[in-house]
Amino acid sequence: MDTAAFGDFVRTRRAALQPEDVGLRRGPRRRTSGLRREEVAELSGMSADYLARLERGAGLQPSEQMVAALARGLRLTLAERDHLFLLAGHRPPGRALSSDHVSPGLMRILDRLADTPAEILGSLGDTLVQTDSAVALLGEQTRHTGATRSGYYRWFTDPASRSIYPADDHEHHSRVRAAQLRAAAAQAGPGSEVAALVDRLLDESAEFRAVWELGGVGLRYTDEKRFVHPEVGELSLHCQVVLDPDQWQSLLVFTATPGTPSAEKLALLTVLGAQRLGDRHQPA
């Protein structure tokens, strides 16, 4: 590990980021050039003291997981992420379509949607990051590990994953998900993680086999998606999608028609999400 170069690179990237880049407000007394160390530490899920040691070149070699978290917190491009890994003495992760590294462009949009349910998905239907409002609406989707990280896999193997959608809509959801997975598999090609996921679902789920054999492509949801939430009841929401074709990631943003009962319920969920965020920041 080149500790001095690693620290310099982290410090310069932190200085290049502005509060607006990550959805923070610029206070009138801000004197720091770029983001404060504490802000980047929180975005990266580490302590400010640990980040300070890394920037000084005084810390131990960070793990690959820690470098990946720091790359995301600093909103690095893939090339910058790879450089950070090399400076840390690690081989950069392969640039697979299922990369955990979130597109900086999508992250910049997500940072400005703090009060809106939004999430970024990878090519396996895996949730990479959510706003707190999205957690309030959909539940915590980033906690899964292994095969269950894939929303496609959970849909066809775990009945509980369907509980937030009306039963009448399940068949359409299954067909759309299979079509989405078919498109991802065609993009990734044989031998990819997506292809392996298809093989696993064909082996484990009779429903998936039946839907897959229909050969559906290009299927999409209707203009509105219906949800059944345990605290506020049924909602009808629009789902806008922003794609990053280079990383095969998508940003989903959920909104409601103003003045409707669904808009009122969504506003309530936003408040619940903010309350839960505040609870997490309370001292134990």
What does this structure look like?
By secondary structure, the protein is of the alpha+beta class. Helices cover 46% and strands 12% of the residues. The chain contains twelve helices and five strands. The chain has a five-stranded antiparallel beta sheet. Helix 1 crosses helix 3 and helix 9 packs across helix 11. The longest helix is centred in the C-terminal third of the chain and has 20 residues. It is globular and about 55 Å long.
How is this fold's topology laid out?
Layout (H helix, E strand, L loop, with lengths): L2 H14 L20 H8 L3 H9 L7 H10 L4 H10 L16 H8 L6 E4 L5 E4 L1 H7 L12 H7 L12 H19 L4 H12 L1 H7 L11 E6 L3 E12 L4 E7 L5 H20 L4
Antiparallel strand pairs: 1-2, 1-5, 3-4, 4-5
Helix pairs in contact: 1-3, 2-3, 2-4, 4-5, 7-12, 9-10, 9-11, 10-11
